[in-house]
Every structure is written in structure tokens, then in C-alpha cells.
Write a structure and sequence with these properties.
The complex is a heterodimer of chains A (875) and B (119).
Chain A: H1 2-7, H2 13-33, H3 36-75, H4 78-107, E1 118-125, E2 128-133, H5 137-146, E3 150-165, E4 171-178, H6 180-186, E5 192-193, E6 208-211, H7 213-220, E7 230-233, E8 236-243, E9 257-260, E10 277-282, H8 288-305, E11 313-319, H9 326-360, H10 362-370, H11 375-408, H12 426-451, H13 456-460, H14 468-503, E12 514-518, H15 529-545, E13 549-555, E14 566-571, E15 583-589, H16 593-597, E16 601-604, E17 618-622, H17 623-629, E18 639-643, E19 659-665, E20 680-684, E21 700-705, H18 709-723, E22 730-734, H19 735-778, H20 780-788, H21 793-826, H22 838-864, H23 868-874
Parallel strand pairs in A: 4-9, 6-8, 15-20, 17-19
Antiparallel strand pairs in A: 1-2, 1-10, 1-11, 3-4, 3-7, 3-10, 5-8, 6-9, 7-8, 12-21, 12-22, 13-21, 14-15, 14-18, 16-19, 17-20, 18-19
Chain B: H1 4-8, H2 15-25, E1 29-30, H3 31-41, H4 50-63, E2 66-68, E3 84-87, H5 89-111
Classes of the chains: A alpha+beta (875), B mainly alpha (119).
């Protein structure tokens, strides 16, 4: 009988209350009638099915009734319903959007099979443990042959580009070079054609390449006949051997073409030529730590064998998933935290709203209780109401999250081999549903716990005031809202200050009014220095004649676009101590480049057309270069050269010849606004050797102009096409846009966080208004009596404003303390702005206080206008 | 007289409801007695389950077809736990209307030779 009794618990309590005894009695009789084990088995099976079916139907009946009832009662309170739905939508939308990005970047496994075993390997320098650098081909070869922890090790180079000519307009493609094993060990097979084989890596093998899905679709119309076709990349023939599947982004999101990585015998000669990134797949059961221990042994052996080049070289093993800067991680966590805070405020506000509604409905609920509605039925009805409102808000919230995607995708760092847009799938929707449920329970439960119960009699008494306990709860909720709003205000304020500080950093050039574009000269066509010089002279000559153009010049790589190209320097007569920084970034420039960027020439002269191969080997250096080697001396005429680690003599190709300083220019933030940059060295373009340094061939054109950039660009394209019709014009953008990319993640982050903060302030204001207005309404009689007894207007106003002020002061005080802690956590994002910045804290407190005051104004005005005579008459 | 519209809104009656009304037509009964009566009258063909019975009773009470009777039979005949149900005038009208509806259907079937002539 106990089993049947338990079964009956499936039924709603109201039904059980009414009929459970009868059903039990009936079951007991049936059991007495049942003869034999088979009959009683059948009886039980029947009973289970019967009760389950009955329970489902009765529950459905109740739900239908409740929905009808809730629909009617919400129809009478449209403002309430709309507020609840809108607030829920905001909370769920914000958290869902933030979650989708955080999940995409931080949590989800990379889109490769068994991605947990994929690691990236780096070389480390013992004296500087935090510094991870790429491997040299020789070290890569030895690590691979001497370690056993990996199923496979592959090397790749992420950032290349090449001109595709023929089959339509010339186009600049992003390429990546990979050893044959890389794609196989990552575990992704081509959609079409074949992957790279070991033969493709062989020196002298015919060129082969794989296309990305995007390029295949966009340039080749998705035709499968593309496999086997010959393409010209930088004038070198390649055969298309396959197409990678959609959503394959390795090593970069932009990669459009994969080329095999080939080593020539000479590549293995120098162990300090560090440019290979290395990816490995751990053998099953081998941990990162075990692999690191083995590699540490390998590097110790190599250090013994090659003490000079491999001195202090160690290894680092990181999961591919974790290749993400601390800043990106913190940024996402901060946003997710802010979104959760907003949801919390939303819940608090909703709970407060529902508490107020529960008080307003006390009489209704009390009457219904008196008429015999069970407490459980009422609770169920209220819960149905909360869930219905929350579900509506949740659906709207998901729509909001979708709408916000274009904004939040810019928070996805491109250091990871993942797509740009977070997938919106069951996982994200499940999260949204969970948040909705949390909201519904969060705000629906509070009134249930406190809303009604043993107060039936009290509720029936006309004009009964809300219980003091409930008012305290609402006050606490509103105070929590103010606290959270202050935390969000301070955090976004600090980040805004950080953004302003970064934006005000002088990049060392004037980005306004400069258009840039890239024309990469293909080899071998432009191998001869004269051919290159002819091209620059023709293009720059025509460009400078364009109306409005004031200066133009070419450089190897624009600052902030390419941040590498770093060489070691030996200055004549300045022996350096081990550990001294003696690196500089190297670029070739044409005359006019400094003028185009308005980089000031501090001393000496610009490079000139007369700096030819046979002339004095000249160099223009930055002020920081001078300060490092010849502080306080006249640098013009001083000599230095590009040395090599260890400082050995080499058969010197020309870039390594002694250079004489002919000019000094201002410092440029080559590595970006927020990073320290090496001193700069600029060499005249005509002194670039014929057979070396091809990667430094000037390719970025900068044009300073007065007037409309959109009119200028077509003219520039026409000029390039006239000089060389096969040349692709790529990356057309303003210098300002380039500088802006430096602060783009910050700006998105600030915009999102400031949006959250604004919403939080608004909600807190609404919360205060709701509470104070409610108090005024329920104390109207008391206020009327006070007026009648001679209280002045200012007394009444003080009474009302005092309540708001107490809440605001408590909330702001607590908020400032919590914000201080939050600011400490954000320090890495603050670009040097102090997390104790007084003005930010003061501004946040002021805004929160003002909001609280604004929230109280309307209720205060109402309270002042209470007419004692009328209030008394109602009694 | 009961408004016709109110009765019509209830038609057609679910099978269990109709049988319960029939069982109550000749006197008040408690739940188990209703079951036995239905079973007896249909020769054991229709066996109502507990869930079906009480869910039907609940809805019939809500619709006003039956009432739970306040006064009980003589104490020595009564079992504390039992509740007795009584058909209401609306219930009787609904049963009649349902019977008429079925009768019309049978007549139409008979006209087409699909039902036996009166036995």
C-alpha cells in the first residue's frame, strides 16, 4: 500500500487531498480480488500507467486554468507584465551574449578531434623565464627526433601573404606554411583532394597548395574542378591539391592558403634563427608535465652540444587551447562578471516588483484563501505567473543576444584557431534557459516565501500596512542594486580612463590624413634593385603630382602592422655587456616616408635618391637609438652594424656592412601603443641588396593628403595599375584606422561595460523609485494625519527623501568597497590607471546618488501633495 | 428548465462520464459502487481505473453534473472514508441529451442497414 501511496504523489496536491484516500481504498479492494502473482503484477502495471496518465491530465488541466487566470490578471497589470518581461530580457540577453563569447573562447574544446592532446611548444630563455620564442629549424628537427612524448610534431609559420595573379583580378592572399604532418596531427582532412604528404616538403618538389573553404567559394565558385589547377603565387607556379573544410582556421582565422614548409640544408645551420611555431599531439596518457620533463632533458643535451647558440635554452609546453593572452582572458571574464551582475540586479529588481505586487494582491489572495483555495494552488499559480513572464523575457533575451552578436564577436581574439562568431547552439540556448529559470525562481520565490500565508486575517483588514519584515527585505534588495550599479560604474569608469590614456599615447607619427595601401613586389620580377627603384620612382612621382597630396613614401612594413623584424646591433666603439638590450627594428624606406607620416627629422637628413648601392652605406636612426649608444653626443657620422648573437664574423652580405648615421628621427611605437618598442633603424631603399632581405622590400605606401580619401584611392589604384598591371593592391586603409585597431578591443569592451553600467544605474533608479513610491502610497494616511497635525511641506519631503537617501548612502558605501576589490582584479587591463583613481570613484558615487535622488523625486512630490481632508474622508 | 445551451456545451459526453451518470441515475453511490455498477451493467466489458474514475468525478463536479452528498446513509452502513455522489438535474439532463444523441445516430445507421432492427 505504501508503494501505491508513493505513486499517488505524482498527482497534484489539491487532487490528492480530495481523492487519495478513496483511490487507496479502491486499490486495496482490487488487491484483495487479485489472485496469484500474475494478476497482481498486472494490477500493479495497470496502476502505474493509470496514475501516471491521470496525473499528467490533471496537471495539464491545472496549467490550463492557471494560464487563463494568469493571463487575465496580467491583462489587468500590463505595465507590471511589460516591465518584468523587459527586465528579464535584458538580464538574460546580456548574460547569454557574454556567455556565448566566453564559452567560445575560454571553455569549448578547439574544433579538432581530441583537441585536449594538442599542445604548442616554445623555446624559453633561462634568464627570462616568461619569454617564449619560436624554434629554429635545427632545434625543431632535434626536438622531434629525440622526444617520445608526441605522436607527431609539426612546424608552421602563421603570417605570410602572396599575390595571386590570373583567374580574375590580382589578389593578396593570407598564407600559412606548414610541414606535412601539421594538418594530419591537428586531425582535419581536406574536404576535397588530398592532404600534404612528406614528398610535398622535399626540397625541389613541385609547388602544391591547399585552399581554404572561404577562398574556394569566393574566388573559385566552389567548383570541385579546382583541384589539380595551376595557380601563380608571387609568380611561382603551384598546383591546387585540395580544399580544407569550412570552419577550419589554423593557425589563423584569416589563413586562405596553406603551403608546404620546405627546409634547405642551409636552414639547419643556424640555431638562433628563430621563426618556427611548433604544434604537437601528445601520445595518449602522456601529460603536459611529462612531455615538458622529457623536453627539458632534450634541451639540456642540446645545450651541452651547442653551448654557444643554445645557452640557457629551455622548453615550454602549453595546451593549444591556452594560447591566449592574460588580457584577453581577463577581459572576457570581466565582461561575463559584469553580465552576471546585471542579471543579479535584474533579478533583484524583479523580486522587489513582485514583492510589491504580492502586497497589493494580499487582499485578493486572502479572499481566495478564505474561499478555500489551497495554499499550494495559490503558490502554484504565482509560480506559473513568474515562469510565464520569465519565459517570455527569456525568448526576447535570446533575440537580444543574437542582435548583440556583431558587437561581441569583436571580443573574440584571433590568436586562437577558432571561427570569429560564437556558434549559437543547444549549449548556448540551454544556458539561456537556465538563466531564465534562475531569474524566474530568483524573483518568483521571494514573494512566495514571504508574500502570504498565516496573514489571511491581517490581509482582510482594510488598509493593513505591509509587514515591517517585508519592507526590510525590499530595502535590502534595492541597496544591493545600488551596490552592484556602483561596482559597474567604477569598473567601466576605470576602463574608460584607461582607454583615454591609451588613445592619448603619442604613436610618434601623425595618423590624420594618411592613406596607406600595400603592393607587394613579386620576385624574381623585381629582384634587381634597379627594377624596384624604377617602380618606386614611377609610382611615387605620379602620386605626388595628384592634387591634394603633400607627401608620399614606401616602407617595408608600416608600424603596428608588422611589429617584428628585429635585429641585433653592434655600435662601433661601444662594446656591450652580456644582458644589455641591443636590438633594433629594421626597415627600408624611400625618400618621403618620414614626411608622409610626419615623423620629425631631429638631426641630419632624410634618406635620398643618391643613397645608391655604391654610395656611403647610410642609415637614419630613431632618437632612442642614439640615446642608447651615444647619449648626449652628436650621432651624425657614427657607425654601427647589424651584428649577430654571439658576435661572430660572417662573410658579410651588404645589410651587415657598417652603416653610417646620416639622420636622426623621432621615436615610433612600432609594436603598438601599449607596448615598449625597440629603437628603429631605417635604411635607404636603393641600398637593399639584390639577393637578400627580400622580406624587407618596401611594400607599404603611405600618402599624406589634404581632402577626401575616397576620391584619392581610385586614383592611387589607377597609378599602380599603370605602372604594373599584374600587381595586387591590398589593405587599403587610413593610418588612423591602423592606429584605431590598437584600441579596438578596448573600445568594444568599454562600450559593452558602459552599456551594462548604464542599464544597472537605470534599474537601480527604477528600484528606488518603486520602493519609495510604494512606501508613500501605503503611508498616505499617516502622511495625511501628519499634515493635518501641522507638518510642513519640507518635513514631509524630508521624510520621503530620507528613506531614499539612507538606501543610497548604504548602497554606494558598500559599492565603493566592492568596486575597489574589483578594480584590483582588473589592474592588468588598466594601462597604468590606478585602480584607486579617486575621481572615478567620486564620479560613480555622484551618478549613483543622483539616480537615487531622481528616483525619489516623484514619490516625494506625491507625498507633499497628499490632501489630508481627502485621506481622512476615505476612512 | 435548464438552458439548452448549457447542456449542449457538454456534449458529446466522454464514455466514462456517461457511464458514471447512468450508475448514479437510480441512487447515490460511492466510488467503488460506481465501478461495480458499471462493470456489472456492461457485463465486465468496461472496467474503469481509479485514475479515470476520480479524474472524471473531479471534472463532473466542476461542471456541475454531480454533487458530493452531505448527509450519509445510516452509520452502520457507512464507511468513514467513503464519499457519496449524487446526480444533479444538469447531470440528468446531460445524460438524457447524450442518450438522445446516440439514439439519433443509431436511427440513422439503421436507415442505411448498418444497425440491427429493433430486437
Amino acid at each position: 500500500m505504501r508503494a501505491y501511496s508513493a505513486l499517488l504523489r505524482l498527482l497534484p496536491a489539491s487532487f490528492r487531498h480530495e481523492y487519495a484516500d478513496e483511490m487507496l481504498a479502491l486499490h486495496a479492494r482490487r488487491r484483495r480480488d487479485a489472485q496469484g502473482p500474475l494478476a497482481s503484477l498486472a494490477l500493479w502495471a495497470g496502476a502505474v500507467l493509470d496514475v501516471a496518465a491521470c496525473a499528467a491530465r490533471v496537471h495539464l488541466d491545472i496549467l490550463r486554468q492557471d494560464l487563463r487566470y494568469v493571463g487575465r490578471s496580467l491583462g489587468r497589470a500590463k505595465g507590471f507584465a511589460l516591465t518584468v518581461v523587459a527586465v528579464t530580457a535584458l538580464g538574460v540577453g546580456a548574460t547569454t551574449a557574454a556567455f556565448s563569447v566566453t564559452d567560445h573562447v575560454l571553455l569549448r574544446p578547439l574544433p579538432f578531434p581530441d583537441a585536449g592532446r594538442l599542445v604548442q611548444l616554445w623555446q624559453t630563455q633561462r634568464d627570462d623565464g616568461s619569454m617564449r620564442v619560436e624554434l629554429s629549424p635545427a632545434n625543431f628537427r632535434d626536438w622531434r627526433s629525440r622526444s617520445t612524448s608526441f605522436e607527431a610534431l609539426g612546424a608552421f609559420h602563421r603570417g605570410g601573404s602572396a599575390n595571386l595573379v590570373g583567374d580574375g583580378p590580382p589578389e593578396r592572399l593570407s598564407t600559412a606554411t606548414v610541414t606535412a604532418d601539421v594538418l594530419a596531427l591537428v586531425g582535419v582532412r581536406p574536404l576535397l583532394g588530398r592532404p600534404f604528404a612528406a614528398d610535398d616538403d622535399r626540397e625541389g618538389a613541385p609547388g602544391t597548395l591547399l585552399l581554404s573553404y572561404g577562398l574556394w567559394q569566393q574566388r573559385f565558385g566552389g567548383e570541385s574542378s579546382v583541384v589539380g589547377r595551376k595557380l601563380l603565387l608571387d609568380d611561382v607556379p603551384y598546383q591546387v591539391i585540395g580544399v580544407m573544410p569550412r570552419g577550419f582556421h589554423f593557425p589563423r582565422r584569416e589563413t586562405q592558403v596553406w603551403l608546404p614548409m620546405r627546409f634547405e640544408a642551409g636552414d639547419f645551420e643556424r640555431r638562433d634563427d628563430l621563426y618556427l611555431e611548433t604544434v604537437g599531439r601528445l601520445r595518449p596518457g602522456v601529460s603536459e608535465d611529462a612531455a615538458l620533463a622529457e623536453l627539458t632533458l632534450v634541451t639540456a643535451q642540446l645545450e651541452q652540444q651547442y653551448p654557444r647558440e643554445n645557452k640557457g635554452v629551455g622548453a615550454s609546453v602549453m595546451r593549444l587551447r591556452d594560447q591566449l593572452s592574460q588580457q584577453s582572458r581577463l577581459l572576457l571574464l570581466a565582461l561575463f562578471g559584469a553580465a552576471l551582475g546585471l542579471l543579479l540586479i535584474a533579478c533583484t529588481n524583479l523580486a522587489s516588483l513582485l514583492l510589491a505586487r504580492a502586497v497589493e494582491r494580499r487582499r485578493e489572495l486572502a479572499v481566495r484563501t478564505a474561499l478555500g483555495a489551497g495554499r499550494e494552488r495559490l503558490a502554484r499559480q504565482l509560480m506559473t505567473e513568474s515562469l510565464l513572464l520569465a519565459a517570455t523575457g527569456g525568448v526576447l533575451g535570446v533575440a537580444l543576444a543574437f542582435a548583440a552578436l556583431p558587437l561581441v564577436v569583436r571580443l573574440v581574439p584571433n590568436a586562437l584557431p577558432i571561427g570569429e562568431a560564437p556558434p549559437v547552439d543547444l549549449r548556448v540556448l540551454a544556458f539561456a534557459a537556465l538563466m531564465t529559470l534562475v531569474t524566474a525562481i530568483g524573483f518568483g520565490l521571494a514573494p512566495l516565501l514571504r508574500g502570504f500565508g498565516n496573514e489571511t486575517a491581517a490581509g482582510l483588514r482594510e488598509g493593513a500596512r505591509a509587514g515591517a519584515g517585508r519592507e526590510r527585505l525590499r530595502s535590502a534588495l534595492v541597496m544591493a542594486e545600488v551596490t552592484l550599479a556602483v561596482v559597474l560604474l567604477v569598473s567601466s569608469g576605470l576602463l574608460i580612463r584607461a582607454l583615454l590614456r591609451v588613445q592619448s599615447i603619442d604613436p610618434g607619427f601623425d595618423p590624420a590624413g594618411v592613406v596607406t595601401l600595400r603592393t607587394t613586389l613579386p620576385m624574381p620580377k623585381y629582384r634587381a634593385p634597379d627594377a624596384r627603384a624604377g617602380f618606386y620612382a614611377a609610382v611615387l612621382g605620379e602620386v605626388r603630382r595628384l592634387p591634394g597630396v603633400t607627401a608620399a613614401g614606401y616602407i617595408s612594413h608600416l608600424p603596428m602592422v608588422m611589429t617584428g623584424g628585429i635585429w641585433t646591433i653592434e655600435a662601433e666603439g661601444r662594446p656591450t655587456q652580456p644582458g644589455d638590450p641591443r636590438t633594433a627594428s629594421l626597415r627600408y624606406v624611400t625618400p618621403g616616408y618620414f614626411a608622409a607620416l610626419r615623423i620629425p627629422i631631429v638631426a641630419g637628413r632624410d634618406v635620398s635618391e643618391s643613397d645608391t648601392a655604391g654610395a656611403l652605406q647610410a642609415a637614419v636612426v630613431s632618437q632612442a637609438f642614439v640615446d642608447r649608444y651615444w647619449p648626449g653626443e652628436n650621432p651624425i657620422g657614427r657607425r654601427f652594424r647589424f651584428g649577430l648573437l654571439g658576435g661572430e664574423e660572417i662573410a658579410a652580405p651588404r645589410p651587415f656592412q657598417d652603416r653610417t648615421i646620416v639622420g636622426v628621427v623621432g621615436n615610433v611605437k612600432v609594436r603598438g601603443l601599449e607596448r615598449r618598442s625597440e629603437p628603429q633603424v631605417y635604411l635607404p631603399n636603393r641600398q637593399q641588396p639584390e639577393d637578400a632581405m627580400g622580406w624587407y622590400t618596401p611594400q607599404d605606401l603611405a600618402v599624406r593628403h589634404a581632402g577626401d580619401a575616397s576620391a584619392l584611392v581610385p586614383a592611387l589604384r589607377r597609378i599602380v595599375a599603370r605602372v604594373d598591371a599584374t600587381l595586387a593592391v591590398a589593405d587599403v586603409r587610413t593610418l588612423e584606422a591602423i592606429v584605431d585597431t590598437q584600441t579596438a578591443p578596448r573600445r568594444v569592451q568599454v562600450r559593452v561595460l558602459a552599456g551594462f553600467a548604464a542599464l544597472a544605474v537605470l534599474l537601480a533608479g527604477v528600484g528606488i523609485h518603486g520602493l519609495v513610491a510604494f512606501t508613500v502610497a501605503s503611508r498616505a494616511r499617516e502622511i495625511g494625519v501628519r499634515r493635518a497635525l501641522g507638518a510642513r511641506t519640507s518635513d514631509i519631503a524630508r521624510l520621503v527623501l530620507g528613506q531614499g537617501a539612507r538606501l543610497a548612502v548604504a548602497g554606494v558605501g558598500l559599492g565603493l568597497v566592492v568596486a575597489y576589490a574589483a578594480g584590483q582584479g582588473l589592474q592588468a587591463l588598466l594601462a597604468g590607471v590606478s585602480p584607486r583613481d579617486v575621481s572615478t570613484f567620486a564620479a560613480a558615487a555622484f551618478v549613483a546618488g543622483l539616480t537615487a535622488f531622481a528616483g525619489c523625486l516623484l514619490p516625494a512630490w506625491r507625498a507633499v501633495r497628499v490632501d489630508p481632508a481627502r485621506v481622512m474622508r476615505v476612512e | 428548465m435548464l438552458p439548452r445551451a448549457e447542456v449542449d456545451a457538454l456534449l458529446p459526453l466522454p464514455l466514462a462520464t456517461f457511464h458514471i451518470l447512468l450508475a448514479l441515475a437510480d441512487g447515490d453511490r460511492h466510488g467503488y459502487a460506481i465501478l461495480r455498477e458499471v462493470e456489472r451493467r456492461t457485463g465486465g466489458e468496461l472496467k474503469l481505473s481509479a485514475g479515470t474514475l476520480y479524474r472524471s468525478i473531479q471534472r463532473m463536479q466542476e461542471d456541475g453534473l454531480i454533487l458530493e452528498r452531505r448527509e450519509r446513509p445510516a452509520p452502520e452502513l457507512d464507511d468513514e472514508r467513503r464519499r457519496y455522489y449524487q446526480i444533479t438535474p444538469l447531470g440528468a439532463a446531460a445524460a438524457r441529451a447524450e442518450a438522445a444523441r446516440l439514439h439519433t445516430l443509431v436511427r440513422m445507421a439503421r436507415a442505411k442497414g448498418l444497425a440491427p432492427e429493433r430486437a
